[in-house]
């Protein structure tokens, strides 16, 4: 019996490599002195890491962190107001899961902290050729930005990069900021962190409410 060939993830071909290279270049511009920042990277398990000095990488497909912590999708194991940057990378989540995660992102971001959303641009034709329509729709700016605003984040800028021309480029990057005077909307969830204090990242320096 012939086995059905396994489709490669879009990041493994030439198109994906060009998008990831453009993403890395843009993140270097967006994040000042990354080595001195607390950065959380949210991505699928198939997506290569950005190469930035991130603190932890979240695997959306498994709803867990690779290292050093494990948590549910809507419950980041990080204390309130302790992260400078969160990088949302091509997450194709349904509406309910997307809203849960964005609310928790707002909770863990420090005042004036930034969420950077990297997503494929539906206006670039090759995006449809290398991802499923459903996947692309779930992780597009149209799906993410309204939910981010409901979570209390303010859109600062939206730009395009990668292969293509102007607004037809393959990569769209949206930058959202948590207002300086923002209060934590979602309290730190009871996830048994008292039993596993090592999983509460940044607990030693953050002002937890």
SSE arrangement:
Elements (H helix, E strand, L loop, with lengths): L13 H17 L8 E5 L12 E4 L4 E2 L17 E7 L5 H14 E12 L4 H6 L2 H6 L2 H10 L3 E8 L9 E7 L32
Parallel strand pairs: 1-2, 1-4, 4-5
Antiparallel strand pairs: 2-3, 5-7, 6-7
Helix pairs in contact: 2-5
Poorly predicted regions: 1-6, 60-72, 188-209
How would a crystallographer describe the biggest sheet? 7 strands, mixed
Element order, helices and strands?
A: HEEEEHEHHHEE
* Class by SSE composition: alpha/beta
What gross morphology would you assign?
globular
Q: What Rg is obtained from the alpha carbons, in whole angstroms?
A: 17 Å
Assign a percent range to the helix content: 25-40%
Mean pLDDT: 76
- Helical stretch count? 5
Beta content: 15-25%
The overall strand count is: 7
User: What is the strand arrangement across the widest sheet?
Assistant: 3-2-1-4-5-7-6
- How far apart the termini lie comes to 59 Å
Q: Overview of this structure, please?
A:
There is one protein chain. The chain has a seven-stranded mixed beta sheet. The N and C termini lie far apart (59 Å). Helix content is 25%, strand content 22%. With 209 residues, it is α/β, with parallel strands linked by helices. The chain has helices at 14-30, 95-108, 125-130, 133-138, 141-150; strands at residues 39-43, 56-59, 64-65, 83-89, 109-120, 154-161, 171-177. Helix 2 (95-108) crosses helix 5.
In short:
Helix content is 25%, strand content 22%.
